[in-house]
C-alpha cells in the first residue's frame, strides 16, 4: 500500500496526528473532540505523569513502611492526578493566550475557531475540580500540595497573571512543576518535609527555572506584542541561553556536594551525569531548530526528556538502594 493511500485512510478515519497538522473531518472523531485533546497538549503531560509516578514509587521504598497489596493503584492514581492538573493548566493557558497564539501558534484549536476560549476555560476548571477532589481522597497532604500547584498555575495565566512579569514568570512555572510536584508525589507514602524530597525538589526547581526558557523561543515576537516580558524577547536567545545554562547545569553538578553533606544518599552519584544533557540543551537553544511535529524547538523536547530521566534515575537508584524493602512488595 502506497504512503499516499495510507495517508488518505488515516485522514478519513483518524484525522491529524500531530498538533501542527490542519483539522480535517473524520469518520470517527469530530474536530471538537480532537480540539479538546489538543488543548491538553498530551506530550507535555508525559513529564508530570512519569515524574510523579517515579517519585511516588521512590517514596514508597524510601519510607520503609508496610506495603499494601494495592499500592500500585494508589501510585497510578496519584500520578494521574498530577498530570490532570497539568492538563487543566494547559487548557487555561490556551484560553488566556489567544492573541499570542494567533501570531505564534495559529494551528492551535482556539485560533483555528474549532473550539471557543470559553469552552477551553470551562474544561480547565472541570479538570482542576476533578484533580482536587481526587487528590484529597488519596490523603490530606497530597490534596494540600495539589491545591498549591493549582494556585500557581491559575495565577500564572489569570490575574495577577504572573506570566507577563520578567524573571518571575520563570520562577512561577518552575515551583509547581518542580518543588511542589515532587513534594506532592512524595507525600503519598512518605514525609515531604524530610531532606531527600526537599533536596530533589530544589534540584528540579532550579533546573526548570532555566529549562523553561526553551518554551519561549518560538513565542518571542508574540509575547512581546502582547505585553509579556520573557528572557528571550528581552535579552535575545544567545544571552538567555548563557543566563539559563547555570540553572540547568549546576543542580546536577552539585549532587556530590549534597551527598558529602549527608543530604542525599551516596547511591545517587550517577545523577550527576545529567549535566551532559544540559550541555546539549545549551547547544540546541543556540541552534534554535524548530520541530516539524512538536510545538517548539528541539531544546524544549530534550528539556522535558532530561527531567523525566532525572526522576526515573532517582527512582531506580532509590529502589535498588533500598532493595531489602523492595523485595517485600513482590
Give the termini separation: 47 Å
Give the C-alpha Rg.
20 Å
Got a strand count? 0
Structural class: mainly alpha
Helix content: 55-70%
Average residue pLDDT: 90
CATH-derived architecture: Orthogonal Bundle
Question: How would you describe the overall organization of this protein?
Answer:
This protein is mainly α. The chain has a single domain (46-324), classed as Farnesyl Diphosphate Synthase (Orthogonal Bundle). The chain is built from 16 helices and no strands. Helix 4 (71-96) packs parallel to helix 7. The longest helix has 26 residues, at 71-96. Mean pLDDT is 90; it is low at 323-330.
Briefly summarize what is shown.
With 330 residues, this protein is mostly helical. It is 70% helix and 0% strand.
Secondary-structure map:
Layout: H1 3-13, H2 31-40, H3 42-63, H4 71-96, H5 98-104, H6 117-138, H7 140-157, H8 168-186, H9 195-211, H10 220-225, H11 231-235, H12 237-253, H13 255-260, H14 275-287, H15 298-321, H16 323-329
Helix pairs in contact: 3-4, 3-8, 3-15, 4-6, 4-7, 6-7, 7-8, 8-9, 9-12, 9-15, 12-14, 14-15, 15-16
Amino acid at each position: 500500500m502506497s504512503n499516499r493511500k495510507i495517508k488518505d485512510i488515516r485522514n478519513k478515519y483518524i484525522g491529524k496526528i500531530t498538533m501542527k497538522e490542519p483539522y480535517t473531518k473524520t469518520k470517527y472523531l469530530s474536530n471538537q473532540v480532537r480540539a479538546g485533546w489538543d488543548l491538553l497538549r498530551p506530550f507535555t503531560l508525559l513529564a508530570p505523569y512519569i515524574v510523579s509516578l517515579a517519585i511516588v514509587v521512590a517514596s514508597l521504598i524510601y519510607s520503609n513502611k508496610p506495603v499494601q497489596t494495592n499500592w500500585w493503584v494508589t501510585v497510578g492514581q496519584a500520578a494521574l492526578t498530577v498530570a490532570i492538573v497539568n492538563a487543566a493548566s494547559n487548557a487555561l493557558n490556551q484560553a488566556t493566550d489567544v492573541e499570542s497564539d494567533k501570531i505564534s501558534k495559529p494551528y492551535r484549536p482556539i485560533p483555528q475557531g474549532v473550539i471557543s476560549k470559553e469552552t477551553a476555560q470551562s474544561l480547565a476548571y472541570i479538570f482542576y475540580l476533578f484533580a482536587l477532589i481526587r487528590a484529597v481522597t488519596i490523603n490530606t497532604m497530597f490534596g494540600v500540595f495539589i491545591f498549591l500547584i493549582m494556585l500557581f498555575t491559575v495565577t500564572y495565566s489569570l490575574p495577577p497573571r504572573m506570566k507577563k512579569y520578567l524573571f518571575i514568570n520563570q520562577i512561577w512555572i518552575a515551583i509547581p512543576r518542580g518543588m511542589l510536584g515532587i513534594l506532592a508525589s512524595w507525600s503519598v507514602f512518605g514525609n515531604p518535609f524530610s531532606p531527600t524530597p526537599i533536596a530533589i525538589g530544589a534540584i528540579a526547581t532550579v533546573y526548570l527555572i532555566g529549562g523553561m526558557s526553551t518554551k519561549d523561543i518560538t513565542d518571542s515576537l508574540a509575547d512581546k506584542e502582547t505585553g509579556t516580558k520573557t528572557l528571550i524577547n528581552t535579552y535575545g536567545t544567545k544571552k538567555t541561553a548563557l543566563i539559563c545554562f547555570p540553572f540547568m547545569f549546576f543542580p546536577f553538578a552539585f549532587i556530590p556536594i549534597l551527598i558529602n553533606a549527608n543530604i542525599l544518599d551516596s547511591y545517587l552519584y550517577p545523577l550527576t551525569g545529567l549535566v551532559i544533557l544540559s550541555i546539549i540543551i545549551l547547544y540546541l537553544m543556540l541552534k534554535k531548530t524548530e520541530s516539524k511535529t512538536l510545538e517548539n524547538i528541539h531544546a524544549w523536547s530534550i528539556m522535558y526528556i532530561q527531567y523525566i530521566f532525572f526522576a526515573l534515575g532517582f527512582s531506580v537508584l532509590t529502589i535498588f538502594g533500598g532493595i531489602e524493602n523492595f523485595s517485600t512488595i513482590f
